[in-house]
Amino acid sequence: MDALTDHARKNLEHWDRQSDDYEARHSEQLTQNPMAWGCWSVPESQLQVLGDVGGKDVLELGCGAARWAIALAKRGARVVGLDISARQLEHARRNMRDACVDFPLVHASAEAVPLADASFDIIFCDHGAMTYCDPYCTVPEAGRLLRRGGLLAFSAATPILNLCWNESEDHVDDHLHANYFDQRRSEDASSVNFSLPYGEWIALFRRNGFTIEDLIELRPPHDAQTSYTDYAPIAWARAWPAEQIWRVKKLRDS
Ligand SMILES: C[S@@+](CC[C@H](N)C(=O)[O-])C[C@H]1O[C@@H](n2cnc3c(N)ncnc32)[C@H](O)[C@@H]1O
């Protein structure tokens, strides 16, 4: 891998370390509905974020164990899965073997993707690398890698969830705990996450040649179940958006 940023290296070590535990905790939910968004698995068939992927070149940034990528390959997409964690990619290879599906896996950071300009129609992730990378690196990278008219779509925690995160209690509540305008990078002992205020996301997309198609604020149904029990109580996520999906299209080269 090319030289990594400090936060990419920290996140790599975090994911290599916790990959097996993550699989043990979440594989049942992720396998049950591999094409679903967010912690409460809202189905792609309902949201239509990616649409018809048949015959399209698709890159998943932070593919993990590649369940999304395998499902898209089965629907006729030419998929590439990229992840920074070697251990996550081992889980991906096992799942690909089990599904009798084959496509390239790239061991790299989404901040510096070793692939050619204008080689994809869709770049996406579900709580993937867009959460762990500096958007000022990944949005230009996506702009470089996408063909004109191509789609960038990704889910992540909302700024509202981040503001309501009570660090001393380590859970979300209904008070504001942080400065909205200062949110960008948050770091704990194990990993580094990124999030931007809404206006800053929009300015960054526009500066890199993207137009905004949609911002989907996920609201799980009240009977939804999740293995991500430490994310947010369902009552919270039904009252305020805990997860969002940006859907932006590349109009022009920046
Ligand atoms: C929460 S997992 C999501 C994976 C997949 N969507 C799933 O649900 O299994 C986040 C993934 O992002 C990857 N990741 C973190 N930082 C990355 C980076 N800089 N470049 C590429 N992948 C990264 C991690 O290794 C991990 O596999």
Write up what this structure looks like.
- With 254 residues, this protein is α/β, with parallel strands linked by helices.
- The chain has a single domain (6-156, 197-226, 244-250), classed as Vaccinia Virus protein VP39 (Rossmann fold, 3-Layer(aba) Sandwich).
- The chain is built from nine helices and 13 strands.
- It has helices spanning 6-32, 44-47, 67-74, 86-99, 129-132, 135-145, 159-163, 198-207, 234-239, and strands at 36-37, 42-43, 57-61, 78-83, 105-107, 120-126, 146-157, 165-166, 171-172, 185-187, 192-194, 210-218, 243-250.
- It has a seven-stranded mixed β-sheet, sandwiched between helices.
- The model has no long low-confidence stretch (mean pLDDT 97).
- Bound molecules: S-adenosylmethionine.
- S-adenosylmethionine (SAM) is lined by residues 8, 11, 15, 30, 61-62, 64-65, 82-85, 88, 109-111, 126-129, 132-133.
Helix-strand layout with pairing:
Elements: H1 6-32, E1 36-37, E2 42-43, H2 44-47, E3 57-61, H3 67-74, E4 78-83, H4 86-99, E5 105-107, E6 120-126, H5 129-132, H6 135-145, E7 146-157, H7 159-163, E8 165-166, E9 171-172, E10 185-187, E11 192-194, H8 198-207, E12 210-218, H9 234-239, E13 243-250
Helix pairs in contact: 1-4
Residues 8, 11, 15, 30, 61-62, 64-65, 82-85, 88, 109-111, 126-129, 132-133 line the site of S-adenosylmethionine.
Summing up helix and strand content along with how strands pair, one would put the structural category as: alpha/beta
Provide the CATH topology. Answer: Rossmann fold
In CATH, the architecture is 3-Layer(aba) Sandwich
Question: How is the largest sheet built, in terms of strand order?
Answer: 5-4-3-6-7-13-12
Element pattern in H and E: HEEHEHEHEEHHEHEEEEHEHE
